[in-house]
Design brief:
single chain; alpha+beta; 4-stranded antiparallel beta sheet; 23 strands; 20% helix; elongated
Length: 286
């Protein structure tokens, strides 16, 4: 013969299909056999999960060098300066969202049970008696016993802040003509104290006190030997997981056996149902 080829299996498994018989003429690339790849598929799925976990771990490790805004708002306080050394968990900044201020007031339980989220409320500021419009954002679902054995429910009211409301300001409110039991001070719609996720040196500060930031904006950058080592280790783990998955995906192609040349099948050594090992001859082509 001008050319001959012993077609061998590169994997172990059970022969599922065979499309040839001795004497058949085949073209290069024709599928000759398929071998059961269920074990390899399971391993590839496991490798894919491992890669996803490694990617998340890497992303999380890289992100430890940044301090991000957990909520949108204004930088109320910066507690570090460029060049400062910080420890993991150290407080570095405070973010406040004061665009709306929140009141939590007690109302008679029977009346509060009829209130609904989105309902309008009339808010009266203590001292100035200025009237503001608020919106009910929450009503507790259970009754509580207040002073004087009165059943109450806590109602949360949000008020748009034009800039004059602070946490020192107290107020009362009425809803559907029902007045709150006493007054309460305003709270911020959101407030977060940000901490460093790792020890290191403050290499960059991207904001100033009073600056408005969006959620997830980077405020502060850190650097340090431990951070660098952690990122390098996470990067190597990620690359190893990528290689493992790629190798398994490449191996998957070996479970479909194709003809390496055009020619005639002069010997068929494996049939459907046979268990083959890596290196076993499946057929011979001239």
């Amino acid at each position: 013969p001008a050319n001959t080829y012993n077609v061998k299996s590169l994997v172990a498994g059970k022969v599922l299909t065979s499309t040839i018989e001795e004497g058949d003429i085949v073209e290069e690339g024709t599928v000759l056999y398929t071998v059961d790849a269920s074990d390899a598929t399971t391993k590839a799925e496991q490798a894919s999960i491992t890669l996803q976990q490694a990617q998340r771990s890497y992303d999380k490790t890289v992100d430890r060098q940044y301090v991000r805004a957990e909520v949108a708002g204004v930088v109320a306080t910066l507690k570090v300066a460029k060049g400062d050394e910080v420890t993991s968990g150290q407080e570095v900044a405070v973010i406040r969202d004061s665009s709306k201020m929140v009141l939590q007031l007690e109302f008679p339980a029977a009346d509060a049970a009829t209130f609904s989220v989105g309902q309008s409320a009339e808010v009266t500021l203590d001292g100035t008696f200025e009237m503001l419009t608020g919106t009910v954002t929450a009503v507790t679902g259970t009754d509580a016993l207040s002073t004087g054995n009165l059943l109450t429910r806590t109602v949360t009211i949000a008020v748009q802040n034009a800039g004059g409301l602070t946490t020192a300001q107290a107020a009362t409110a009425s809803i559907n003509g029902v007045s709150s039991i006493g007054s309460a001070t305003f709270g911020y719609q959101a407030e977060r104290t940000l901490t460093a996720q790792a020890a290191g040196t403050v290499t960059s500060i991207h904001v100033q006190e009073g600056q408005t930031v969006a959620e997830n904006d980077i405020l502060i950058e850190l650097s340090g030997d431990d951070l660098t080592e952690s990122i390098q280790s996470a990067s190597e783990t990620l690359r190893s997981a990528e290689i493992s998955l790629q190798n398994l995906q490449d191996t998957m192609a070996n479970y479909t056996v194709t003809s390496p040349i055009s020619g005639t099948i002069i010997e068929k050594d494996a049939k459907v149902g046979d268990a083959v090992k890596s290196g076993d001859t499946l057929c011979v082509i001239y």
